[in-house]
Amino acid sequence: MDYYYTDLNGQTKGPASEDQLSALATSGVVGSNCMVVPVGSRVVSSSSTRDYLWPHRPFAY
């Protein structure tokens, strides 16, 4: 699935694949406060809700 996202400057970017977004998060281009929306969707969510972007974060039950 591809996503549009906001970078740390609030600029809308994309579309980008999950792998690309993960690389952007690792490099610091996308932070946990950035927004993501799947292409073709109107549902916007915080990138912090996308577990694949933050594999180093402990899983919370």
Question: How is the topology of this model organized?
Answer:
Layout: E1 2-6, E2 12-17, H1 18-27, E3 35-38, E4 45-46
Antiparallel strand pairs: 1-2, 1-3, 3-4
Structural class: alpha+beta
DSSP helix fraction: 10-25%
| Shape call | globular
- Tally the beta strands: 4
Query: DSSP strand (E) fraction?
Result: 25-35%
Counting H and I runs of at least 4 residues, what is the number of helices? Answer: 1
**Largest β sheet strand count, sense and barrel closure:** 4 strands, antiparallel
Give the SSE string. EEHEE
> What value does the average pLDDT take?
82
Low-confidence stretches: none
Structure, described:
16% of the residues lie in helices and 28% in strands. The chain has 61 residues and is an alpha+beta fold. It has a 4-stranded antiparallel beta sheet. The termini are far apart. The mean pLDDT is 82.
